[in-house]
């Protein structure tokens, strides 16, 4: 249950309640917190958060709801040494139980404050409503990962770039080009590597990155030369649904048709994981002031509906794949794949013009916890879209998918691998894996 006594943002309202209890008139109490009483946000906030506010709110959610909220510390500190934090929200959040994952992040651009606020408010909203109705049902079927401020240095300085003057949303490796502010190399920035880690270590079936200030929801590709994404119709369906919640003036389209860029989060995310990856940009209608009122308070209800839609898509078995079977209780199952990806061709130090390559490794775990050993694992399809960016340049006419199985291992808790098996599973499909060898040897002390 939600315990408001432990929510700092509730203290203000509680203080107002105390004022009433002390016999102050109704006219007096709201005047000290007039706008607080009018806030329509889950937090009750009426002004932008500081970094300390974000950190305190996330820590409070985790401390007061330990079975529902787990803190995440991203692995790389920012250029100026700051820690990037997030939270994971689900029923029984501490167990890797194979649910599909919805990842939503704010503030790739440190001066786009509403993107962090909307993202944080959605997290608080989920926690407050975690035992009720539609939200309860979604959190039973899926896991949500929220990182409200990914470019912490930029946020603290209220500027778009990181502290190396890099636009982190030009620094992702797939199709990277050494444009001004794209960083010294693909993945040069710890902030973009953090997001790669986040999406590489869980089965993110939907990924949303929140921005301001256009009225548009974008999906891959970033460049016209790359040609349409293999899952263009699925991407368009999700982007359109999100745009529809934000309002009739919002459009959904491939990023390249808005304006062409390279090295953005959604391109790498989609082509590496096949999770549906979108950039949601919100902005007030033309001519309206860009204030906390218009960009956060007046936008939140639509954002809530949009993100619940995205979460529903993440949870929908038609939009991912299922691996199921029976394993020894207490075993750890792991799926992994590793593959090269390429930047755009660009002038290398030796004078040659060609792409650089980098390796993406996806790996995620499932804890077998049910007494009968049955498990059901929501994963992204093993068939990976062929990207336009290749070792010999850009091929916009490339299409289709690599037949590239997940490599599934069945292990003891100490890491002893008892079985390794490839698994091919397509979108909307489910496959049953036979883990008899793992079951046979799991409790045998002579098998190492
Ligand atoms: Zn932005």
Structure description:
There is one protein chain. The chain contains 14 helices and 21 strands. With 448 residues, the chain is of the alpha/beta class. It folds into 3 domains: 38 residues, no CATH class; 272 residues, Aminopeptidase; 121 residues. It has an 8-stranded mixed β-sheet, sandwiched between helices. Strands 13-10-19-20 form a 4-stranded antiparallel β-sheet. Helix 5 crosses helix 13. It is globular, with a radius of gyration of 23 Å. The N terminus is likely disordered. Bound molecules: zinc ion.
The N- and C-terminal alpha carbons lie at a distance of 45 Å
> What is the count of β-strands?
21
How many domains in all? 3
Please list the strands of the largest sheet in the order they lie side by side.
1-2-4-3-5-8-6-7
| CATH architecture verdict of the largest domain | 3-Layer(aba) Sandwich
β-strand percent reads 15-25%
Rg is: 23 Å
Number of continuous helical runs: 14
Question: How does the helix and strand content classify structurally?
Answer: alpha/beta
């Amino acid at each position: 249950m939600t315990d408001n006594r432990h929510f700092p943002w509730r203290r203000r309202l509680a203080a107002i309640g105390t004022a009433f209890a002390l016999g102050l008139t109704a006219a007096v109490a709201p005047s000290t917190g007039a706008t607080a009483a009018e806030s329509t946000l889950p937090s009750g906030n009426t002004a932008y958060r500081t970094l300390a506010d974000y950190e305190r709110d996330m820590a409070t959610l985790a401390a007061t709801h330990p079975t529902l909220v787990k803190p995440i510390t991203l692995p790389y500190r920012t250029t100026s040494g700051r820690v990037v934090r997030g939270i994971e929200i689900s029923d029984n959040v501490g167990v890797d139980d194979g649910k599909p994952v919805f990842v939503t992040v704010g503030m790739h651009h440190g001066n786009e404050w509403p993107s962090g606020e909307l993202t944080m408010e959605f997290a608080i909203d989920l926690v407050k409503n975690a035992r009720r109705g539609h939200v309860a049902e979604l959190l039973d079927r899926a896991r949500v990962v929220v990182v409200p401020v990914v470019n912490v240095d930029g946020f603290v300085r209220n500027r778009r770039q990181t502290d190396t003057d890099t636009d982190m949303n030009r620094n992702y490796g797939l199709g990277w080009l050494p444009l001004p502010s794209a960083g010294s190399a693909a993945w040069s920035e710890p902030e973009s590597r953090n997001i790669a880690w986040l999406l590489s270590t869980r089965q993110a079936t939907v990924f949303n990155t929140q921005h301001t200030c256009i009225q548009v929801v974008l999906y891959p590709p970033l460049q016209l030369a790359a040609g349409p994404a293999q899952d263009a119709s699925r991407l368009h369906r999700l982007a359109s649904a999100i745009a529809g919640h934000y309002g009739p003036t919002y459009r959904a389209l491939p990023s390249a048709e808005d304006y062409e860029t390279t090295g953005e989060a959604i391109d790498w995310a989609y082509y590496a994981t096949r999770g549906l990856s979108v950039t949601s940009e919100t902005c007030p209608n033309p001519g309206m002031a860009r204030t906390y009122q218009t960009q956060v308070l007046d936008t939140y209800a639509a954002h809530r509906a949009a993100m619940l839609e995205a979460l529903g898509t993440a949870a929908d078995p038609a939009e991912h794949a299922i691996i199921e079977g029976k394993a020894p209780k207490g075993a750890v199952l792991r799926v992994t794949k590793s593959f090269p990806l390429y930047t755009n061709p660009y002038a290398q130090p030796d004078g040659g013009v060609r792409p650089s390559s980098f390796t993406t490794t996806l790996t995620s775990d499932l804890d077998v916890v049910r007494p009968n050993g049955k498990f059901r694992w929501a994963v992204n399809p093993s068939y990976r879209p062929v990207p336009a960016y290749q070792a010999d340049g850009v091929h916009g006419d490339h299409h289709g998918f690599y037949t590239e199985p997940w490599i599934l291992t069945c292990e003891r808790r100490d890491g002893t691998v008892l079985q390794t098996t490839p698994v091919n599973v397509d979108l909307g499909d489910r496959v049953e894996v036979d883990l008899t060898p793992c079951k046979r040897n799991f409790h045998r002390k002579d098998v190492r």
